[in-house]
Design a protein that fits this description.
With about 210 residues, this protein is mainly alpha-helical. The chain folds into two domains: about 70 residues, Homeodomain-like (Arc Repressor Mutant, subunit A, Orthogonal Bundle); about 140 residues, Tetracycline Repressor, domain 2 (Orthogonal Bundle). Helix content is about 70%, strand content about 0%. The protein contains nine helices and no strands. Helix 5 packs antiparallel against helix 7, helix 5 packs antiparallel against helix 9 and helix 7 packs across helix 8. The longest helix has 27 residues. It is elongated. The N and C termini lie far apart (about 50 Å). About 30% of the residues are buried. Keywords: DNA-binding, Repressor, Transcription, Transcription regulation. It holds the Pfam family TetR_N. This is Regulatory protein TetR.
Length: about 210
């Protein structure tokens, strides 16, 4: 399959998901949004399930390409920029519809191993990317030396998924969550004055890699 064909089918899948949602989506709906026929779609994919597996993989690749480089001269600045990308607020109707459709796909993942594997892979890549920023910050002396990069990555990925679920389920913009995460980076992670001087890293906090609350 050519790159042009892949892009066309994936773009059509995005538009069809926004229009119809996961449950009502059919191969004909995707074909209607594509320059390809339904027969062409079935030539490349056995059905909706297999096409959506490819779509999830496409989303992962797109996200990684878009965030391969993030602006910022320091690890903290790059982590802030990455958070902005993760929790960007797109309030147009198509973005809202797509968030809802993705929530429907996530709801299927406990019963569909392929969906679960792809969502888990995206989750892992997000966690590792954040952990790398944090580890770089610790090495540079920007973040407190006792911060656990892996645990912080797990925590922030959980926050991201929660914000996206709320945005889809109860139409709650992620903007306030994004502001809280920026404060968390500056107040709980940073080792400089005004950073996390008042955070006791021996207490159970998300930053220290132990379960607790702030």
């Amino acid at each position: 399959m050519s790159e042009e064909t892949i892009d066309d089918i994936m773009d059509a899948t995005y538009r069809a998901l926004c229009e119809h949602g996961y449950a009502e989506l059919t191969m004909q709906d995707i074909a209607a949004e594509s320059t390809k026929s339904k027969g062409t779609l079935h030539y490349h994919f056995d059905g909706k399930r297999e096409l959506l597996e490819a779509f999830l993989e496409h989303l992962i690749e797109q996200f990684e390409a878009r965030t391969e480089t993030v602006p910022g001269e320091t690890p903290a600045e790059r982590l802030h920029a990455f958070v902005d990308e993760l929790l960007s607020s797109a309030d147009d109707d198509s973005a809202t519809a797509f968030r809802t459709a993705m929530l429907e796909i996530k709801a299927q993942s406990p019963y569909d191993e392929a969906y679960q594997e792809r969502l888990a892979e995206f989750d892992r890549r997000l966690r590792d990317r954040i952990a790398d920023f944090v580890a770089d910050g610790v090495a540079a002396g920007e973040f407190h030396e006792d911060i656990d990069p892996e645990a912080t990555g797990e925590f922030l990925v959980t926050v991201f998924h929660g914000a996206q679920t709320r945005a889809a389920a109860v139409d709650r913009s992620p903007e306030r969550t994004k502001a809280y995460v920026h404060d968390y980076i500056d107040e709980a992670l940073r080792a400089d004055d005004g950073g996390n001087a008042d955070v006791d890293v021996d207490e159970p906090t998300a930053a220290s890699g132990q379960e607790g609350s702030r």
